[in-house]
């Protein structure tokens, strides 16, 4: 059986599709956070904003620093990957089935 791989899922196993879709969802959220942070930087330093709005932008900048730190932590920290463990467990189950049939 030939399985075509797709960049956005839909061509492999259900587990593989879920892993790909989860990756793209996380990646999209991270990009959206970074773009929002850059827009706030632009508003803070390069745009003419009223003083009351500038205070709000400063508060939002502080919040987005924490969001970007958490996003960076997610992408670059060593972590336990539950999806990888699930795939390994599934492959062990398949191996046991094949071995038991012989």
Task: Walk me through this protein's architecture.
The chain is mainly α. The chain has a domain at 32-101. Helix content is 77%, strand content 0%. It is built from 3 helices and no strands. Helix 1 packs antiparallel against helix 2 (51-76). The longest helix has 33 residues, at 14-46. It is elongated and about 65 Å long. The two termini are 21 Å apart. Residues 95-102 have low confidence and may be disordered.
Largest sheet: none
Number of strand elements = 0
Oligomer: single chain
Helix content: over 70%
Give the radius of gyration.
22 Å
Low-confidence stretches: 95-102
The helix tally amounts to 3
Distance between the first and last residues' Cα: 21 Å
β-strand amount: under 5%
Which word captures the global form? elongated
Structural class: mainly alpha
Output the keywords.
elongated, mainly alpha, disordered C terminus, 102 residues
Task: Give a short synopsis of this structure.
The protein starts with 13 loop residues before the first helix and ends with a helix. It has a domain of 70 residues.
Write the layout of secondary structure elements.
Blueprint: H1 14-46, H2 51-76, H3 82-101
Helix pairs in contact: 1-2
């Amino acid at each position: 059986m030939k399985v075509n791989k797709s960049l956005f899922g839909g061509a492999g196993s259900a587990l593989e599709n879920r892993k790909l879709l989860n990756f793209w969802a996380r990646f999209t959220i991270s990009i959206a956070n970074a773009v929002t942070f850059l827009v706030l930087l632009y508003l803070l330093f390069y745009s003419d904003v009223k003083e009351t709005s500038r205070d709000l932008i400063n508060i939002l900048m502080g919040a987005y620093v924490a969001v970007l730190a958490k996003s960076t932590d997610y992408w670059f920290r060593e972590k336990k990957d539950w999806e990888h463990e699930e795939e390994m467990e599934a492959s062990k189950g398949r191996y046991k089935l094949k071995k038991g049939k012989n």
